[in-house]
Amino acid sequence: MKHFRKSDKDAIIILLIVIIIGLVVFPLLKDSENEEESPNKTEYAEKQGRNSRKKPQYYKVPEKQYELFDFDPNTADSTQLLRLGLQPWQVRNIYKYRAAGGRYNKPTDFARLYGLTLKQYKRLEPYIKIEREVMAADVYNGSHSDFRHKKDTYSSPHDTTIKKDSSLIAYPIKIKDGEQININSADTNDLKRIPGIGSYYAKRIVSFRQRLGGIANVHQLLEIQGFPESSLKFMNVGESTNSRHLPTITKIRINHLDLNALSRHPYIRYVQAKEIMNFRRLRGPIKKADDLRHLPSFTDEEVERLNPYIDYSP
Predict the structure, then answer these.
(1) Measured in whole angstroms, how far is the alpha carbon of residue 57 from the centre of its chain?
(2) pTM of this prediction?
(3) Which residues of 46-71 are buried (b: 16+ CB within 10 A; e: fewer)?
(4) CA-based end-to-end distance of the chain
(5) DSSP state at residue 34
(6) Radius of gyration of the chain from Cα atoms?
(7) What does the alpha-carbon distance between residue 49 and residue 51 come to, in Å, rounded to a whole number?
(8) Cα-flanking dihedrals φ and ψ of residue 92, to 5°?
(9) Which residues contact 295 (CB under 8 A, 6 or more apart)?
């Protein structure tokens, strides 16, 4: 400091004083500003908190809507059962029970449906209206009240079904052991007379028969998922399955159809249809089942299953 002039020393001292004052006063001013702003920040935080409470932190899933109306669990279709609020797998259980010959005789029987909760049953119980099943013996003996008053509404004892009037629902009478029904000519009403077959499997049989072009062997029906094997003994195909020409089978002309037409048959996969087309192009018409056995994608079982549906004419 001794080398500085007096005026320089005074300037340095003043600068130091200013710096000291700045270091002391500036933090105090900053604190006061923060105190003034803090109410606003607190108010903002409170608003944010209120807004966050108003907004739900989850998605609200609407409850499944259902309708309530009178229904008979023995005859209600899947659309009606789903409208009542039942789950699809519960509807499938009802269909399986009915297809196996089961019947709900009173509302409490419906409570035994697998998977039906107590809440569901209590909701549906007042709307379960089960029509009384008329037994053939009641009709023929005249013990049924409607029969005594309306005898002309029923068929003769030689008929296999009961005609329904305004107060009576008709149910098919099941055939007995030793009796059989031709599944290639029967309609759904005839098929429902087979023990174990209800509306569901009767429709599946008709659909399966139409897609194939006829049933060559009753055991083909086991390809339908869940089909009751015990019902097969009540069925026949109308002709011996050993016959080379079954009149009830619609055959496909394997040497004339194109790729798409061949692959539409339920027993011909697309890759098999391509191999058939290649065989015809390279070696000429397919003349017998053994020609199909030489194709890589065909097994012996598949050839045997397909053979009744093939017309080998060139």
Answers:
(1) 34
(2) 0.46
(3) eeeeeeeeeeeeeeeeeeeeeeeeeb
(4) 126
(5) H
(6) 42
(7) 5
(8) -60, -35
(9) 272, 275, 276, 279
CA pair distance 268, 257, nearest whole angstrom: 12
Q: Name the amino acid, one letter, at 91.
A: V
What pLDDT digit, counting tens, does each position of 16-63 carry? 888 888 777 666 666 555 555 445 555 555 555 555 555 555 555 455
| The residue type at 35 | E
Structure confidence by residue, pLDDT tens digits, 119-175: 888 999 999 988 765 444 444 444 444 444 433 333 444 444 444 443 344 567 899
Bridge partners of residue 252, in order along the sequence: 310
Comparing CA positions, the residue from 256, 224, 222, 240 lying closest to residue 308 is: 240
Contact 237, 183 (CB under 8 A): yes
The two three-digit tokens of residue 242, written as one number: 């050993």
β-pairing verdict for 310-311 and 252-253: parallel
- The SS3 call for residue 225 is coil
Q: What angle do CA 45, 48, 53 make, to 5 degrees?
A: 130
Coil, strand, or helix at residue 236?
strand
Six-digit token string for 179: 């009796």
- For residue 127, give both structure tokens: 């709307």
Q: In sequence order, which residues have a C-beta less than 8 Å from that of residue 312 and are 6 or more positions away?
A: 254, 255, 285, 286, 287, 288
